[in-house]
Every structure is written in C-alpha cells, then in structure tokens.
Design brief:
The protein is an alpha+beta fold. About 30% of the residues lie in helices and about 30% in strands. The chain is built from 6 helices and 8 strands; from the N terminus they run H-H-H-E-E-E-E-H-E-E-E-E-H-H. The longest helix has 13 residues. The protein is globular and about 40 Å long. The model has no long low-confidence stretch (mean pLDDT about 90).
Length: about 180
C-alpha cells in the first residue's frame, strides 16, 4: 500500500457519522503531501490505529496510554511508512505482544482527526488517524510496552464505564456491533 492506494480508499470511504465524514476531505488533501507520513510535519501527520476485537466480538483491547493518561485503541505514528495497514499491525504487535493478530478487513474501518496537546519539545498538532479492525485471541498473554501504563480486554458493555465519554471509541464500538463483515 502506498499513498495512491490510501487516497483511493479515502475517495471510496463512506460513513453515516457526520463527525467522521467532515474529516475525509482533509485526509484526502494530506495524502498529496509526502511529509504527511512523518511526525516532523508540525501541522499534523498520519497515524494508524488498530481497533482490536476478540473472535466472538464481545471485547476490545485498549491501552492506558502513558503520555495521554487515557484509555485508547493501540496505534502510532507512520514514521515515513505510507502503508498504514502495516503501521497499524506493527503498532498493535509492539504495544500488546500479541502474535495472533489478524486483519479483519483491508478497508478503512474508521477515521479520526484529533488534537495532540503540546509537550516539551513537541508543539500542539493534529493526528490524522486511519483505523483498521483487527482480531486477536483473547486468551493470549499480553505484554505491556513502554508506551502503556496498562492493557486490558474490556467487554463492549463496560467500555463507557471504563473510559468515560470518547466519541471516536464509542463510534468504533457501535460500528463493531452493526457490521456484517465482522461476523
């Protein structure tokens, strides 16, 4: 996958969620910028995430992110890699230690553009997060990386209680429960 494939996927991407559809044009514009796959692009850059679910579609794997202090899906920076599926898979493996990860579908599962707060030596910037759905064995042992405080398989029914209100995670959760491709 390269930026032309990502651009084609974004052109075909449709969502009934208005808060998500407003991002599509800015994602498409970004695909034309070769620097968009590097974190050094200060205005914002691509990231890739993995929405990891178990085979029975009852749990999702979330990480308590060390820098942000919030429960989130696993993922990270492209760091020059234009194949965002590979980035999502690599980040999921590194952040969970899971070997059983399988890509459920090679099309985009979700998009989210969100602000990352300023930190020492890193100005405030946007992440243009392209998300893919992965499946893993819920019984495989987890390994917490340096980027996480904790990892947990959370039942779909408990996500809101565990993480609070996070519209993008709630959207992915709703998509998971509605999607025919996942069954």
């Amino acid at each position: 996958m390269d930026r032309t494939i990502l651009k084609s996927q974004l052109e075909k991407y449709r969502t009934p969620y208005e808060e998500e559809s407003v991002f599509i044009d800015s994602f498409l514009e970004l695909t034309d910028d070769p620097l968009a796959y590097k974190r050094e692009r200060i205005e914002g850059h691509f990231t890739a995430s993995a929405w990891i679910v178990n085979k029975r579609r009852t749990h999702t794997l979330l990480t308590l992110h060390r820098k942000l202090g919030r429960w989130l899906q696993l993922g990270g920076h492209a760091d020059g890699d234009e194949n965002l599926i590979d980035v999502a898979m690599k980040e999921a493996r590194e952040e969970s230690g899971l070997k059983s990860l399988v890509l459920v579908d090679s099309t985009i599962f979700d998009l989210d553009k969100h602000i990352i707060p300023e930190r020492p030596h890193v100005p405030e910037h946007f992440h243009y997060d392209v998300r893919y759905i992965l499946e893993a064995d819920i019984n495989e042992p987890l390994q917490i990386s340096d980027e996480s405080i904790s990892l947990a398989w959370i039942t779909f029914d408990s996500v809101v209680d565990m993480i609070g209100y996070n519209p993008s995670i709630l959207r992915m959760l709703e998509k998971t429960s509605k999607s025919e491709i996942l069954l």
